[in-house]
Structure formats: structure tokens, C-alpha cells
Amino acid sequence: MGLQRLHVAPRYSEAAIYNGVVYLAGMVPECAAADIRSQTADVLAQVAHRLAEAGSDKTRILRAQIFLADITEIGAMNEIWDAWVTPGSAPPRATVQAALSDPHYRIEIVVTAVQSAD
């Protein structure tokens, strides 16, 4: 199958699928909450939704890149992440501090996954 893009905007697509691999754009919070736990839960819900649209799920993530506005919030973010990840399916992951595009964002997550086999 050729290249497929989902939710195409003028600047970027929310996802691209090629050769059975799903590439998600960086997901940022859509909620108005200011705390890292709420923002992390919001972003992970978006990741799950986009993966489902692309024919995948969180157990098929190949890698995750997590960008935090403040690396000292990694413990609180990990509480939400650990509850979300399916036991035995935790993907390779990198977590770094970064200046995010909006000062209200505490987190951004980029995911690459394999489409489901069915």
C-alpha cells in the first residue's frame, strides 16, 4: 500500500502510514488543565485515538519520544504513563526537556507504531 495521510492540514498531517508503519505527529494537550498529570492523560488519549484510526493500538508502539517543558515533572508524568502502558508492551522511549511551541504545554509525545495484523 502507498503512503496515506490522516487529518491533513496546511502545515502538517496528524498521521502518516507507510508500509504498515504509523507515524504520528507530536501530540500536545487539548485540555485546559495546567498540571502535567492531566495533560499527559489527555495526550495519551489522543495517541490511542489516532493509533486506532490508523489501524493500530498502544501495544504496537515501536517507539515513543516524550518532550517535557520541565524535566522535574517526569515522576508525575511517569505515573500516568505507567498506568496507560499495557504490561509487557512498554515501548522503547526517550524523555527529554524541551522548549515547547506553546507556554501552556507541559508535554508533547511523538509515537511510531506498527499497524495491526488483522
In short:
With 118 residues, this protein is of the alpha+beta class.
Give an overview of the whole structure.
The chain is globular, with a radius of gyration of 14 Å. The model has no long low-confidence stretch (mean pLDDT 95). It has a six-stranded mixed sheet with strand order 1-2-3-6-4-5, with helices on one face. It is 25% helix and 31% strand. α1 (36-53) runs parallel beside α2 (74-84). It has helices at 36-53, 74-84, and strands at 4-8, 13-18, 21-24, 61-68, 93-97, 107-114. The chain is built from two helices and six strands; from the N terminus they run βββαβαββ. The chain has a single domain (23-114), classed as 60s Ribosomal Protein L30, Chain: A (2-Layer Sandwich). The protein has 118 residues and is of the alpha+beta class.
Gyration radius, rounded = 14 Å
The CATH top-level class label: Alpha Beta
CATH-scheme architecture: 2-Layer Sandwich
Which blocks of ≥5 consecutive residues have pLDDT under 50?
none
Average predicted local confidence, pLDDT: 95
Q: CATH superfamily name?
A: RutC-like
Distance between the termini: 15 Å
CATH topology annotation: 60s Ribosomal Protein L30, Chain: A
- Name the strands of the widest sheet in spatial order: 1-2-3-6-4-5
Determine the number of helices (DSSP H or I, runs of at least 4 residues). Answer: 2
Shape: globular
Helix vs. strand class: alpha+beta
> How many domains in all?
1
Q: Care to count the β-strands?
A: 6
Provide the succession of SSEs.
EEEHEHEE
Multimeric status of the protein:
single chain
Helix content: 10-25%
